[in-house]
């Protein structure tokens, strides 16, 4: 029986290549993309190299809690069991942008979507004998600082600051989820893809940030290379049960000092529950 994986931000870059690799290994992959059109383009791209790929498309904006609920409900309607969730979606913004729900866009997309989608799909994940949650973080967590009082950074916003905060939040979420989850057979991983040649620094950036990213990404890996650790943690037998760790290049790596404050991890979890309106993170059904 095929294993079923959900990949957010599946339409380009690391998400697309993660989806391609998982599908190539014979798994069913549920592509979560912002629009149906982006999903169809991703599906066609993967089928062009792997005609046998088993793919489904689920469209929703991962900066919006309402869309996350819509996507998760559609997935759960079609699939009682989910074997893996790759929280991969991400954005980078030079300007301070608030979503229609009143949340700063980078924090909503890069952190709250991980937190919320894992919560929403957990009832199906816990039904798998070897469920895995992969959170795509970054070495950018090293310069991150989490502002519990003002997570939207409304008083002191900068693209680098918001990205660092979100990537640090991914690491803390992984550690806290590991400690809180009620099921030993559900494993959670934070992964760093390394520097990758993607377009994340070109879409919502100032001209200066665009130039800086074009220059920096020249030294990066291909998206397929950047996806390797995500895929390894999602499917490799060697990674089974290795929960609550930070990975890079398919190996466990030490986190920065900024990610070693358990009290901050607890505070972030409680803040995230409030922002997402979650009363019970691990529902029985």
Short summary:
It is built from nine helices and eight strands. By secondary structure, it is of the alpha/beta class. 47% of the residues are buried.
Structural commentary:
The protein is built from 9 helices and 8 strands. By secondary structure, it is α/β, with parallel strands linked by helices. Strands 3-2-1-4-5-6-7-8 form an 8-stranded mixed β-sheet, sandwiched between helices. The longest helix is centred in the middle third of the chain and has 22 residues, at 159-180.
Spatial strand sequence of the major β-sheet:
3-2-1-4-5-6-7-8
* SSE ordering: EHEHEHEHEHEHHHEEH
Q: Major β-sheet, in short? A: 8 strands, mixed
| Poorly predicted tracts of residues | 205-209, 211-215
Task: Tell how many strands the DSSP assignment holds.
Answer: 8
| Portion in helices | 40-55%
Strand content: 5-15%
General form: globular
Q: Roughly what is the average pLDDT, rounded to an integer?
A: 92
Count of DSSP H/I helices: 9
Which structural category fits the helices and strands?
alpha/beta
If you compute it from the alpha carbons, what radius of gyration comes out, rounded to the nearest whole angstrom?
A: 17 Å
C-alpha end-to-end distance: 23 Å
Q: What descriptors fit this protein?
A:
single chain, 285 residues, alpha/beta, 8-stranded mixed sheet, 9 helices, 42% helix
Question: How does the SSE layout of this entry go?
Answer:
Layout: E1 4-8, H1 13-24, E2 28-33, H2 36-49, E3 54-59, H3 65-78, E4 84-87, H4 105-125, E5 131-136, H5 159-180, E6 186-192, H6 207-217, H7 223-226, H8 228-235, E7 245-248, E8 251-252, H9 262-276
Parallel strand pairs: 1-2, 1-4, 2-3, 4-5, 5-6, 6-7
Antiparallel strand pairs: 7-8
